[in-house]
Amino acid sequence: MDVNEHVGSGAEPDQTSADSQRESDAQLRGVIDEYMSTFQPEPEDTAGVRERILQLVRDDLYRGPSTNLQTEQGHPFSISTASVRSIVRNAVDSVDGIRARSVDVEPAGDPEGSAATVSLTVAMRAGISFAPTAEAIRRSVSAEVLAELGIPAARIDINAEDVYVD
Amino acid sequence: MIDRGESKDSNLLYSGNVSVNGSVNGNGKEVVESARLADSVTSIAGVRALAPGLRDLVATATAKVLRRTGDEPVGVDVTRGGDGVKVRIDAHLDHTRSVAEVVDEIFSVIETDIARGAVEVSGRLDIDLRVVSRG
Prior knowledge:
The complex is a heterodimer.
Chain A: H1 13-37, H2 49-61, E1 66-70, E2 76-80, H3 81-93, E3 98-108, E4 115-125, H4 130-149, E5 153-164
Parallel strand pairs in A: 4-5
Antiparallel strand pairs in A: 1-2, 3-4
Chain B: H1 28-42, E1 47-50, H2 54-65, E2 76-80, E3 84-93, H3 99-115, E4 124-134
């Protein structure tokens, strides 16, 4: 029961993530170097101190992947992908007889990030008519994304992959 | 997320690039500017809190590794590079406004602060804003 009406976007989150990680590492090393140039640690503290600091910071820094968007006024920002998915998931789950499964949100629009493309898979309660329900899902997701993010959903692809019985 | 570690000497505080004897070095200016922006940004409706910036994370990790106490995190990182100034903010938002509304106001507040001299900018201004969480 695949009702994809549009082709998915071609974003490359892996490359962005790798670039971001390299940039963060470079910044971290810079900040650590500044600290260590103004501080003389005790001799017993010096063994591997830089790597220990770096590891602790990396552990704290990791907050999961981000989605890059921008406001109508053209201000770019990134938001944790988990937060965006949560907004979409709540909108989907608010439709009677529908449970969200996977949710994917990619930047879209021109300029990129001024809108979002949403792709999701859902489970439907047995006996529900898909076509009108898909429209209800689209309305709900579109309204919620605009209200919560302030960014329009340019496209919402829905794939019903399972049916459940209450 | 802030672990101050075991305190060995409470007189040794780490805050950005303030050195161990309390004097402010050349980059201490960036820490002061970061604190100014952090005050402005946290006053915006819809901003629940700021996540510690890189300097705060390093300060905290350093304090932990060296078993000293850390200072309060600033939450905004102002750094100068070859071509200008970068302002990095990791923010936690609440549900009272849309994300875009809050983002626009953060940009506006920072630009206003910069216009009135809270941060010295020569060259390009790069604002790197990340919404860490919402709720």
